[in-house]
C-alpha cells in the first residue's frame, strides 16, 4: 500500500519540489506526496505544488510567534487527516511544533536542516558557519522530536566551506545536496528500513 506524504512549508519550497518530483517518478519507495500545507498565505511553494497537480492549502494560524498554538496544530492535523497522510515532511516550515503533532506522527515526522547537526542548530545557519570558520558544513535529515533540530539523524551530506563563500553561495551548494538526501531519507522511511535505537537510526 502507498505511503501518503504531507509536506509543510513556509516559503519557496525547493525541497518540496524535489520530494514531489521524486514522488512523481516513483522514487520514494511507495511514498507519494498527497498534500502541501503552508502557514504563510503567499508562500511561493503553494503555487508550485498546485502546478504539479498536488493539493495545496494555506492554514491560517492564530499566533504570529515562532511556536504554533495547540489549536493551530489541530488545524494542521485535520488537514493532514483529510488527505490520509501517513508521513509528514517539514521542508522550510518556519514554525516550532508542540508535542501534539510530534506525538501524532511519532517516528513519521521528518525535517531537513542546512548544517551538520548537532552543529549550528537554529536560524541564519550559513552566516554562522562562515563566521565560525568551520571547513566543512552540510545538511541533515532527521526525525522531529520536541528538541528543535535535535531529533535522531537519518542522513547527512558534507559540503566544504570555501574561503570566499558568502552565506548565499554556500546556501546554493548545500541546497543542492539537500535536494538529494531528503528524498533518499523519505524513501528509506517509506520502505520501512529505518529503526530508531535511542539516539541512533539504524538503516536496514
Ligand atoms: C532549507 O535550507 C532547509 O534546509 C531549511 O529551510 C530551507 C528551505 O528551503 N529547513 P526550501 O523552501 O526547501 O527551498
General description of the model:
This protein has 204 residues and is an alpha/beta fold. The protein is built from six helices and nine strands. Strands 3-2-1-4-5-6-7 form a seven-stranded mixed β-sheet, with helices on both faces. It has a two-stranded antiparallel ribbon with strand order 8-9. Strand 2, helix 2 and strand 3 form a beta-alpha-beta unit. The longest helix is centred in the last third of the chain and has 24 residues. The two termini are 20 Å apart. 38% of the residues are buried. The mean pLDDT is 97.
What class, by secondary structure content? alpha/beta
Q: What is the overall shape?
A: globular
The bound ligands are: 5-O-phosphono-beta-D-ribofuranosylamine
Poorly predicted tracts of residues: none
The number of E-state strands comes to: 9
Give the terminus-to-terminus CA distance: 20 Å
Average residue-wise pLDDT: 97
Residue share in β-strands = 25-35%
Gyration radius over CA: 16 Å
Order of helices and strands: EHEHEHEHEHEEHEE
Please work out how many helical segments DSSP would assign.
6
